[in-house]
Design goal:
- The chain has 138 residues and is mainly beta.
- It is built from one helix and nine strands.
- Strand 2 and strand 3 form a beta hairpin.
- The longest helix is centred in the first third of the chain and has 13 residues, at 3-15.
- It starts with a helix and ends with a strand.
- Mean pLDDT is 85; it is low at 1-18.
């Protein structure tokens, strides 16, 4: 095996050992934005709203489920997670998924590790929301 590939694999396993496990996050606040009609620009974020959501990411079964007082929403993960480094020492784990209507959705988990996520951004069509994570249940 080539040394660079081996080092890459080891780094992925050491930095993100929880890939393949089930990660759970509790959110108490959510903000929403949408595209300005007829443009590629986004409106300002709404003020944070009270949220009682449980977000479960099961990478082994390729599922994301968001539970809230109004019910649950389920997504199927369709691509391998992409991990990038942000400018403030956080990692961003991006998960491409589809909802039950076949619409593509992008989840971006921001934090030092998957066990220490601060925010989860979701873009579904022309709507974006950000869940402020109040508790990591991992």
């Amino acid at each position: 095996m080539k040394p660079l590939l081996l080092i890459s694999l080891l780094c992925t396993v050491l930095i993100y050992p929880s890939l393949g496990q089930i990660n759970k996050y509790r959110s108490d606040r959510v903000a929403i934005t949408s595209k300005v009609e007829g443009t590629n620009n986004w409106k300002d974020w709404s003020p944070y709203l009270v949220s009682d959501a449980l977000i479960v990411i099961d990478q082994e079964n390729k599922k994301i489920i968001i539970y809230n007082p109004h019910g649950e929403v389920s997504y199927d993960i369709i691509r391998t997670p992409k991990i990038t480094q942000s400018s403030n020492d956080n990692k961003v784990t991006t998960l491409e998924s589809v909802n039950d209507k076949g619409q593509k959705c992008i989840f971006a988990l921001v934090g030092k590790t998957l066990s220490d996520v601060n925010e989860i951004y979701i873009q579904e069509g022309e709507i974006r929301c950000v869940y402020n994570i109040s508790k990591n249940l991992n």
